[in-house]
Write a structure and sequence with these properties.
It holds the Pfam family Pep_deformylase. It is built from three helices and five strands; from the N terminus they run H-E-E-E-E-E-H-H. It is of the alpha+beta class.
């Protein structure tokens, strides 16, 4: 089932998400994961976090085809980034919750992450390059952050009016203050 994607300005997107209990109803979790893949596919995204569809849980998915046409598809339940390191990469990032905004973001290109998959198998893995960047982006969502939190204050001021318009779709109150 395709679910609506929350847009920048929705308060849930700024909250740190809750862990999923290991013995939660697996049918519900699997249904949620499938709905997330359906939603992400329809929106033509490469990653989607549960809070983006209104669910405050520490869960995100990635489905990505790299330049070598090698497919990476993974569910991350209760992930914990253990280490971010390496050289800095500048990449263009966009977000399904921030339509029509793409910005250059600087992130380190290696990470070590611990997580469970949809079968509750535990992993501790190293990722590098673009996959590391995608994981960091999705991880930010479950921490209540956006990729815009990684840009300069000057750039935020430049984007202020555009962000205000996006946020107004959620909260039409003109006195609503934006949270960067």
């Amino acid at each position: 089932m395709i679910l609506p994607i929350l847009i920048y300005g929705h308060p849930l997107l700024r909250k740190r998400c809750l862990e999923i209990e290991k013995f939660s109803n697996s049918n519900q979790i699997n249904s949620l994961i499938q709905n997330m893949y359906d939603t992400m596919g329809q929106a033509q995204g490469i990653g989607l976090a549960a809070p983006q569809i209104g669910i405050s849980l520490r869960l995100f998915i990635i489905e990505y085809n790299n330049f070598y046409k090698k497919k990476f598809k993974q569910v991350f339940i209760n992930p914990k980034i253990l280490k971010i390191y390496g050289s800095y990469l500048i990449t263009k990032e966009g977000c399904l919750s921030l339509p029509n905004i793409i910005e250059n973001i600087i992130r380190k290109n290696h990470l070590i992450i611990e997580y469970y998959d949809e079968n509750w198998k535990k992993y501790k893995q190293h990722f590098h390059g673009l996959l590391s960047i995608i994981i960091q982006h999705e991880y930010d969502h479950i921490e209540g952050k956006f990729f815009l939190d990684h840009i300069s204050d000057q750039k935020k001021l430049f984007l202020h009016n555009q962000l205000k318009k996006i946020s107004a779709k959620i909260n039409p109150n003109p006195n609503n203050r934006l949270h960067f």
